[in-house]
Automatic annotation (TrEMBL):
Record GO terms (molecular function): voltage-gated chloride channel activity
Protein name, entry field: Uncharacterized protein
Pfam assignment, any one: Bestrophin_2
Protein species of origin: Tagetes erecta
Subcellular location: Membrane
Biased composition range(s): Low complexity: 1-22, 427-436
InterPro entries: VCCN1/2 (IPR024701), YneE/VCCN1/2-like (IPR044669)
Alphabetic keyword roster: Ion transport, Membrane, Transmembrane, Transmembrane helix, Transport
One GO biological process term: regulation of photosynthesis, light reaction
Recorded topology in the membrane: Multi-pass membrane protein
GO cellular component, one term: membrane
Region (Disordered): 1-26, 384-436
Length: 436
């Protein structure tokens, strides 16, 4: 009987031998392959220049400058600013800064367009007069009588348009004045009324300070409310605020819930609740100004009137001015469109007001009052105790310990007055009884 022996290769013996536990392979997991495109030194394809893109380049540039200037932070005026504002050199300063004015830079597209139209009309009429064109082409001219009749209407239209915009600006300024005054008064009432719960009192004061900031961010586009309220609110409160659709009304909810938790008497609670209505009124007025512009038909009528006026102005002025119609159209377009542009800019007042400075100032005022409240109270208590011991102080506090002395002094004065009155009566009687 023959026995067959099978020889194993060393690799087979190695694979069949048991492996330690830390060398055993883990169960395989499905591999996920996410393709990534790595672009190195790849440039976006250049935009194709079209007639539309070329014509829109100048208006887009002017609008970009205007919007960037609208987002600039405006400071509140101080004494030095007012002195500079009414200086006799203001006219020269304003003239030299014309090229940096956002109003004038925003007028570049319409002024260039109408001046170009005037140059084209002047060139055409010159070519017709010099017989460079066939006799079929007429000279573009017209009577100036229609312009003389419609000029007062255009002037009144521009004046009323600007006046309506300024009334909106004034209404927005008054609304924010009420909000700022209401915030200061509300904080003062809280500091006077709440005496026990200092932690909840501090939180309520921070909510009150946060309301103007939240309203400002609600009205101005692209405001960073997280950055503005990071130092006033805690992270939990800020997360709830950011999840809401109306940030100032969410702050009012924080204020109302905080006042519910306070242990206050009913008259004090009623006074504090009345201050919240000032915040609601400010939100309502500001949202109406922001959401309801001047009637669009009025704005469109003004724009169309100005455009048609300046398109036909070179034809009207050709007989009297010839080539001077080009600078005349330039001056007229720059002047009238400037008035219209100012009305459009101040129609949205919140971009023109110094809201950042107002919010910063009201926060500083309330914070200063919070820091000095305890010190002022201790000082007044010390004065009251000193008054009760040593008599009245220099600032006129009433006497507490010397009440009996003041009463005796008052009685002596009354006695002296009565004695002097008796002496005068005796003298008069003696004079009347003496023989003449």
């Amino acid at each position: 009987m023959t026995t067959t022996t099978t020889t194993k290769s060393p690799f087979q013996s190695l694979s069949s031998s048991p492996l330690p536990s830390h060398f055993k392979p883990h169960p395989s997991k499905p591999l996920k392959f996410t393709p990534k495109i790595i672009c190195s030194n790849l440039k976006s394809p250049p935009k194709q220049l079209t007639i539309t893109s070329i014509l829109r380049s100048i208006p887009d540039w002017a609008d970009g400058i205007k919007e960037r200037r609208m987002k600039q932070r405006r400071p509140l005026y101080k004494h030095d600013d007012w002195v500079r504002h009414r200086s006799s050199l203001r006219h020269l300063r304003h003239l030299l800064s014309s090229l940096s004015s956002r109003v004038i830079l925003s007028l570049v597209p319409p002024v260039i367009a109408f001046t170009s139209v005037a140059a084209v009309v002047a060139s055409y009429n010159t070519a017709v007069i010099w017989h460079l064109l066939p006799e079929v082409f007429p000279v573009l001219r017209a009577s100036s009588l229609p312009y003389q009749l419609t000029a007062p209407a255009l002037a009144l239209l521009l004046v009323f348009r600007t006046e309506a915009s300024y009334s909106r600006f004034e209404e927005g300024r008054k609304a924010w004045s009420k909000v700022i005054c209401g915030t200061n008064d509300f904080a003062r009432q809280v500091m006077v009324s709440v005496e026990n719960d200092s932690r909840l009192k501090t939180a309520l004061l921070r909510y009150i300070m946060a309301f103007p900031v939240a309203l400002k961010c609600h009205l101005i586009n692209e405001s960073d409310i997280r950055k503005d309220l990071h130092d006033l609110l805690e992270d939990e409160d800020l997360a709830i605020l950011l999840s809401s659709n109306n940030h100032p009304r969410c702050i009012i909810q924080f204020i109302s819930q905080s006042m519910k938790l306070l242990d206050l008497e009913e008259p004090k609670r009623t006074v504090l609740e009345s201050k919240v209505s000032c915040f609601h009124e400010g939100i309502g007025v500001c949202e109406q100004i922001m959401g309801i512009p001047i009637p669009l038909s009025y704005t469109r009528l003004t724009s169309r009137f100005l455009v048609l006026w300046h398109l036909t102005l070179p034809i009207i002025l050709w007989d009297d001015c010839n080539w001077i119609v080009v600078p005349a159209t330039f001056v007229s377009a720059a002047s009238l469109f400037c008035i219209e542009e100012v009305g459009v800019l101040i129609e949205e007042p919140f971009q023109m007001l110094s809201l950042d400075e107002l919010c910063t100032r009201v926060c500083e005022n309330v914070q200063e009052a919070m820091n000095s409240e305890k010190k002022i109270r201790e000082t007044l208590i010390m004065k009251k105790e000193a008054t009760s011991r040593n008599g009245p102080s220099l600032n006129g506090h009433p006497k507490a310990g010397n009440e009996q002395k003041s009463r005796s002094t008052y009685g002596d004065e009354q006695k002296n007055r009565s004695t002097s009155g008796d002496e005068q009566r005796n003298r008069s009687n003696s004079n009347s009884s003496s023989p003449r």
